[in-house]
Task: structure prediction
Amino acid sequence: MTLERNTPVAAGLSTWQWLAIAVGLIALQASILFAMGRLPICACGYVKLWHGVVQSSENSQHLTDWYTFSHIIHGFLFYAATWLLLPRLPWPGRLIIAMLIEGGWEVVENSNWIIERYRSATISLDYFGDSIVNSVSDTLSMIVGFLLARKLPVALTIALALLFEILVGLHIRDNLTLNIIMLIHPFEAIRQWQAGPPII
Result:
């Protein structure tokens, strides 16, 4: 975003130190998920760069899928929120906070309670939790979104978020907005609409 304030790149920490913290958080996320019993990779035995079939047991098991766009939007939102709430913190520090939030959500999302919530309240009947490689990839996608938001004009960042939401929503009948709505308070009308074929 062009709204980036003139703050030091790092408050007493070098670039390599910030990078080490970020890598450590990714490793911690993967370790916690492994301890929770998440599979390192898809049970199918291989890893794909892209898996585009939402209603399948391989969704959320590979490197990227339709929900990758939601995680990029997470990065947009976390950049904006940390910019507003923590204006004096250098952007690497704000990224670390975003990673803590995203990593925390990935752990919660892969708890049995949330998995069952998705399966009972949404169209994700074949969802049994993310593979570790998919979860880590989700966090990396958030980082990409955060860094894009840091560099792109505000209007373009907002336009990209809206474009992702609309196109993904029309293609898989789900997106970040609908995902949040259905997780918090499921609506039968939305569930029935989501059962239809792709619009585009």
Observations:
- Helices lie at 15-35, 68-85, 91-109, 112-121, 132-151, 154-172, 176-184, 188-194.
- Residues 91 and 182 are 32 Å apart (CA to CA).
